[in-house]
Write a structure and sequence with these properties.
- Helices cover 41% and strands 13% of the residues.
- A hairpin with a 5-residue loop joins strand 2 and strand 3.
- By secondary structure, the chain is of the alpha+beta class.
- It contains five helices and three strands; from the N terminus they run H-E-H-H-E-E-H-H.
- It has two domains: 75 residues, Orthogonal Bundle (Arc Repressor Mutant, subunit A), CATH 1.10.10.10; 29 residues.
- The model has no long low-confidence stretch (mean pLDDT 79).
- The two termini are 60 Å apart.
- A three-stranded antiparallel sheet has the order 1-3-2, covered by helices on one side.
Length: 138
C-alpha cells in the first residue's frame, strides 16, 4: 500500500542506525496522518512483505503499553557503498527526428488517369480531386 511506504520511510528516519523502535501505534498515526486502525493495517502489510517485525510491549500487569518495531534495513536502505555511477548521462534530444516514412510510396504522375474501381461515384470524386491538385503548384 502507498501508506505503508510512507510509514516505513518515517520509521527508517526514526530508527537512525538500526536500533529497535519503541513507540505506539497512536504516535505513528499522528505523524502519518492516518487512524490507529489504518496504521495497524500498514504494520501488518509491512510485516507480511518482510520489511519489519513487531511485538507488543507490556507493563507488569500485562497491559499493552506500545510496540517494539524491528526493521529489516537490508531491504529498506539502498547500499550506497556499492552504487556505481553510470559512465555517461543520457543526452536529452533537442528536436524530434523526422519520422521514418517512405516518401516515395505515392510517387506517381498526377496526369495519368486512375484505374476504374467499379464505383462510378467514387471514381468521379477521385477525378475531381486529381484535377484540383493539378491546379496548385508544388
Amino acid at each position: 500500500m502507498p501508506g505503508t511506504r510512507c510509514m516505513l520511510a518515517l520509521l527508517v528516519g526514526w530508527a537512525g542506525k538500526g536500533r529497535a523502535l519503541e513507540t505506539t501505534r497512536g504516535a505513528i498515526a499522528k505523524h502519518v496522518g492516518r487512524s490507529v486502525r489504518q496504521v495497524y493495517r500498514y504494520l501488518k502489510d509491512a510485516a507480511r512483505e518482510g520489511y519489519l517485525s513487531y511485538a507488543y510491549t507490556k507493563n507488569r500487569l500485562g497491559m499493552i503499553t506500545g510496540i517494539k518495531i524491528y526493521l529489516s534495513f537490508d531491504l529498506l536502505k539502498a547500499d550506497v557503498r556499492n552504487y556505481k555511477k553510470p559512465d555517461e548521462k543520457p543526452r536529452n534530444q533537442d528536436v524530434t527526428y523526422k519520422a521514418d516514412t517512405n516518401e516515395n510510396s505515392f510517387n506517381y504522375s498526377l496526369e495519368e488517369p486512375a484505374e476504374s474501381t467499379g464505383d462510378e461515384k467514387l471514381d468521379a470524386q477521385l477525378e475531381r480531386l486529381r484535377l484540383a491538385m493539378l491546379q496548385y503548384p508544388k
